Amino acid sequence: MKRQLFLFPILAAVAVLFTGCFIDPDNTGTKVKVDPLLLPGRWEAPSQIAGADANAKLVYVFLKETCSVGNNTYGKWGYQLDQGDFEPADWELAEEQLLNQSAEGDYHKNGWFGWAIENDGEIQLYNTTSVGDAVVPYALRVKAFSSTEMTVIDAGKTYVFRKVQ
Hints:
alpha+beta; 41% strand; single chain
């Protein structure tokens, strides 16, 4: 019995340490404040797709218009485009396809998302699809934010975005 009582404080301490890692994985002790008034605009970072053109950008455009899908609201609209998925000659056409509001276009479909700021250092995305009213939540962790630059961790990759518009 004494042996079990001796292990309890050790297990409790280990549990607290692991919980702390999930709360503050970078051990900085602070959270990043993402200002939702400064986020709208066009943000670009170098694409990290293997074999992509050296000038290819990962583009996020955060808009101010309310994102409504079906009968639900998911923050504000935005869209994403990784130019690394395309040849340089097709970058403009790919973005035009995202903005095309005809039946053949991708307006508010694939590549589009709703966005909201949650937990200060997190941008919650609600990715839309071309299949009905499907919405898939996805979180971007922001490590640094200013009116002109933000550092984001996405799927284990670090991107430094610059606001260009």
